[in-house]
Amino acid sequence: MSAPNPDPETRTVNLFDGELARCPQPVYQRMHAQCPVARAAMTNSPVISRYEDVIKGLRDPELFSSEMDMQMALGTERPMIPQQIDPPLQTRYRKLLDPHFSRKKMIELEPVIRADASALIDRFVDEGHCDFDPDFAIPLPCHAFLRLCGLPQEDLDLFLSLKNGIIRPQLETKSIDMEVNKKARVETGHRIYAYFEDVIDDRKKSPRDDLMTRLVQSEIDGHRLTRNDILDICFLLILAGLDTVTATLGCNIAYLAANPDQRRRISADPELIPNAVEELMRWETPVIAVPRVATRDVEIGGLEIEQGELVSFLIGAANLDEIEFPDAGAVDFDRERNRHLAFGSGPHRCLGSHLARMELRVAMEEWHRRIPDYAVEPGKAPRYSPGIREVMELPLVWPAP
C-alpha cells in the first residue's frame, strides 16, 4: 500500500507522485485540510500551499531570494536573467524587457499566431484524429517564440531538442539515471549558448526588426548589454517560451475533452474563452511550484525554515485555496474574481504573461471554431509528466467531415 500524499503524520508531501501529475486538485485540498505547510518527501525541503503564505513569499525577495545555485540542475553557466536575480538589479532588466512583451506587442503578433494555429489544424482536421501535444500544443508556441525572436522556423526541431534536453533530458537520453541526465543538461546548455553566440554575431553585422536585434542594441544605465547578459536572457526565453504554454494548452484541452458540458459551452459561445483561459490556468496550473531560497530563519504556519533552505511555494495548491477562491473545487468560467497565481506574483511575475494569454486564447478560439466536438480516443487516457504537468499523450478524435 502506497503512503498517503500528503502524509499528515510526517507532514510530508510527494511532489513527484503520479496522482499529483494526473489529478493534483485532491492532493492540494488534502494539503489545505491536513498540512498546509509541509516538507517534500524526497528532499525534506519546505513546501508552502496556502494562498496568503505563497503570495507573501513571492512578493518578498529580501526574505525569499530567487538567487539560487541552479546551474547544475539546468545546465546553465550563470543565473538566467531576469528570473534568477533579485531586485534592484532584476528591476532594471525587467524595465528593459517588459516593453518587448507588452499587450500592444502581442496584439501586433496575434494575426500571425492565429494563422499558424489554423495552418496546423489544416494538417489533421479532415482525418478526424490527432495526438494533440506533438500535432498542435508543441509547435504553436514554438512558432510564436521563433517569430518573436526573429529565428528561422526550420530550426523548430532543434529548439525542441534543446528545450527537452534541459527540462526533460530523459526524453533525449532515454535514461532515468540522474548522472546521465545531469551531464546531458550541461551538454545541452553548451549547445544553447553556442547557438545564440552565432545569432548575436549575426545581428551585430546585420540588424533586423526582431527581438534578438533589440537585445543586441539595448542599454541599461547607458551601457550596452554584455554578450553574457544576452545569452542569459536567451537561455530563460527558450525554456519559458517553448514549454509552459504547451503544457497549459494540453492540460486545458484534456480537461475540456473530459468535461463535454464545459466544452460545449465555449464552442457555442466563444466570448467565454478569455474567462475559460483564466479559470483553467487556476484549475490546472501546470507549473505547480516556484522555488525560492530563505535568506534568514523564518517560521510559516508553525514550520521552522532555516536560512539557506530551498522553499517550494506551491502555486497550484494556492490556486485551490477556498479562502481566496470561493467554491475553489469547481471550474467556473463565470468566476468574477480570479487572482490566480499561475504566472507567479511579485517582482518575478512571468515576463511572458501577455504572450501566454494571447497564445492560449487564440489557440482555443481557433481549435473550437474548427473542431468543436472532440473527445479522448476510446480506450486511451492522457499521460501527464511530473514537475511541469505537460500532457505527453493526448489522443483526440472527432467526427471527420
What does this structure look like?
The protein is α+β, with helices and mostly antiparallel strands and 401 residues long. The chain has a single domain, classed as Orthogonal Bundle (Cytochrome p450). Helices cover 50% and strands 11% of the residues. It is built from 17 helices and 15 strands. The chain has a six-stranded mixed beta sheet, with helices on one face. It has a three-stranded antiparallel beta sheet with strand order 5-15-12. Strands 6-7 form a two-stranded antiparallel sheet. The longest helix is centred in the middle third of the chain and has 32 residues, at 227-258. The radius of gyration is 21 Å and the shape is globular. The model has no long low-confidence stretch (mean pLDDT 92).
Query: How are strands sequenced across the largest beta sheet?
Result: 1-2-3-11-8-4
**The CATH topology, please?**
Cytochrome p450
User: C-alpha Rg, in Å?
Assistant: 21 Å
CATH C-level: Mainly Alpha
Largest β-sheet summary: 6 strands, mixed
